[in-house]
């Protein structure tokens, strides 16, 4: 990490397992995990805490409600904030990519924790990244022994 300040990793999901499993791959001495269970709370809290966030991981759907409108709103206020949308299928994933927003990517569920950790470390350490790269890794990494979750 570049500084002694812990970067906040925000997870927006109604699935408690997601929070637990993502927390298992991050070094707690460098990252502080914050969890919200819905998009409305995320947007409200972003007004107060958004400047402290290092990355947001958000479920694509909450029941029948898509999170993409909330992602757009979040990116208006914090255009440089990286966001990874967790999608259930490739059609949903393509909708995320069609937004064509900087630093917004998508990853398929079940999540490949090894690849997600590499992607998040790259983003949080300020290394150059191709955000769309995270979308295409699931099948090849699982074939190489990646750990799926979700």
Overview of this protein structure:
This protein has 6 helices and 9 strands; from the N terminus they run E-H-E-H-E-E-E-H-E-H-E-E-H-H-E. The chain has helices spanning 16-25, 39-49, 68-77, 90-98, 113-124, 138-143; strands at residues 7-12, 31-36, 53-59, 61-62, 65-66, 83-87, 104-108, 111-112, 148-149. Strands 2-1-3-6-7 form a 5-stranded parallel beta sheet, sandwiched between helices. Strand 1 (7-12), helix 1 and strand 2 (31-36) form a beta-alpha-beta unit. It is globular and about 40 Å long.
Defining key terms:
150 residues; alpha/beta; disordered C terminus; globular; 6 helices
Q: Strand percentage, roughly?
A: 15-25%
How confident is the prediction overall: mean pLDDT?
A: 82
Strand order of the largest sheet: 2-1-3-6-7
Distance between the termini: 28 Å
Number of helices: 6
Segments where pLDDT lies below 50 for 5+ residues?
131-150
**Helix/strand order, N-terminal first:** EHEHEEEHEHEEHHE
| Helical content (DSSP H or I, runs of 4+) | 25-40%
Q: Which structural category do the helix and sheet elements fall into? A: alpha/beta
Shape: globular
Major sheet attributes? 5 strands, parallel
**Strand segment tally:** 9
Integer-rounded radius of gyration: 14 Å
């Amino acid at each position: 990490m570049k500084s002694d300040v812990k970067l906040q990793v925000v997870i927006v999901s109604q699935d408690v397992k997601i929070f637990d499993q993502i927390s298992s791959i991050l070094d707690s001495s460098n990252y502080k995990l914050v969890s919200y269970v819905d998009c409305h709370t995320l947007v409200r809290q972003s007004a107060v805490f958004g400047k402290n966030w290092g990355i947001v991981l958000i479920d694509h759907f909450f029941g029948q409600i898509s999170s993409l409108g909330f992602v757009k709103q979040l990116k208006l206020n914090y255009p440089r904030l990286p966001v990874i949308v967790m999608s259930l299928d490739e059609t949903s994933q393509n909708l995320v990519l069609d937004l064509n927003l900087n630093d917004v990517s998508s990853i398929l569920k079940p999540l490949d924790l090894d690849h997600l950790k590499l992607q998040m470390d790259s983003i949080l350490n300020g290394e150059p990244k191709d955000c769309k790269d995270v979308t295409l890794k699931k099948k090849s990494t699982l074939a190489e022994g990646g750990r799926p979750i979700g």
